[in-house]
Amino acid sequence: MPDQTALRDAAPSDPRRTMRGRPVDAQTRCVHYRTALDIVAIRFACCGEYYPCHACHEETADHPARTWPADRRDATAILCGACGAELSIAAYLAVTACPRCGTGFNPRCALHADLYFAPQPRS
User: Fold this and answer.
1) What beta strand segments (E) does the chain contain?
2) pLDDT band at 3, cuts 50/70/90?
3) Which of 24, 39, 44, 93 sits in a 20 to 30 Å window from 17, CA-based?
C-alpha cells in the first residue's frame, strides 16, 4: 500500500489510496518500475482496479489480465501518480506528460502498451 503519510492531504476518493499490487510510494511507483518517470498506474479492463504495472497485477490479482479493447479508448483508465488526475486511454496515448500537472511520463511505457491496450485496427 502507498505511504499513507504522503497521502494524508489527498481526497478520500483519490484512487491512489486504493492502489492494488505492490506500490512503493504515493506516486504509484512499484517494486518493478520506480524511476522518477514511473508515475502512471493503469485501471485494468478485467477488474476495474488500478495497478502500478502488469507485473503487479500478475502477482497479486486472482485472475488473468485483460487488455482494453481498441474501441474503448474513451475509458478513464490512466492515473497520474503525481497529481491524481485520471485520463482516458486516448488522452494518455497522445501525451508525454500529465495534462493537469505537467509531470513527465516514462516514454518507455510505450514498449509494453500491448499488455494494457489492444491495438487499433488498421484501416
Assistant:
1) 40-43, 50-51, 76-80, 86-88
2) very low
3) 93
Window from 5-9, 57-61, 65-69, 80-84 with minimum mean pLDDT: 5-9
Q: What is the signed CA dihedral for 29, 30, 35, 37, rounded to 10 degrees?
A: -40
Q: What is the pTM of this model?
A: 0.85
Question: 37, 104 in Cβ contact below 8 A?
Answer: yes
SS3 80: strand
Q: List, in sequence order, every beta strand (DSSP E) within 11-91.
A: 40-43, 50-51, 76-80, 86-88
Q: Which three cell numbers stand for residue 47?
A: 477488474
Residue-wise over 19-28: b if at least 16 C-beta within 10 A, else e? bbbbbbbbbb
- Higher model confidence: residue 16 or residue 12? 16
